[in-house]
Design brief:
Elements (H helix, E strand, L loop, with lengths): L1 H20 L19 E5 L2 E7 L10 E5 L2 E5 L13 E6 L2 H10 L1 E5 L7 E4 L2 E3 L5
Parallel strand pairs: 1-8, 4-6
Antiparallel strand pairs: 1-2, 2-5, 3-4, 6-7
Length: 134
């Protein structure tokens, strides 16, 4: 069990180092079936918002980054890690911070892809409202 915890800690450390060295910019395509079984969506659950996806055939850990840019909330995936086996699993990334939530509500959410180069393109992400209970 300690070996697993150590590997997980190392993976998060590596992912954190990669994230610190990568500035948000165009990244992997949200239609890449190795990364995503279907394109990610934004789910609203009460006052919370989450980026939700089912991981494709790519087995290793990754977590998209996001930040408010020009009044919109922009997501991108710049790097992945070589740990874990998450293929086919449902994944969630909470959206946090007042500026991020405001950008999401006012300007929507977008995925920043590498092509067409040099600046890439912003693809709108679908917002899924939580079902209301009777």
């Amino acid at each position: 069990m300690n070996r697993g915890l150590g590997a997980l800690s190392a993976a998060f450390l590596f992912a954190g180092c990669v994230a610190l060295g990568w500035r948000l910019g165009p990244g992997a395509s949200l239609t890449d079936p190795a990364l995503f079984a279907a394109p990610p969506v934004i789910e609203r659950r009460g006052d919370a918002y989450l980026l939700v996806w089912t991981q494709g055939s790519y087995p290793f850990f990754f977590a998209p980054s996001y930040e408010p840019i020009d009044g919109r909330l922009v997501f991108a995936l710049g790097a992945t890690s070589s740990s874990g086996n998450l293929a086919g699993r449902r994944r969630e990334l909470p959206i946090e911070g007042a500026r991020s939530i405001e950008a999401l509500r006012r300007g929507g959410a977008f995925w920043w892809e590498r092509s067409p180069e040099p600046d890439g393109t912003l693809v709108p992400l679908r917002l899924v409202e939580e079902p209301t209970e009777p």
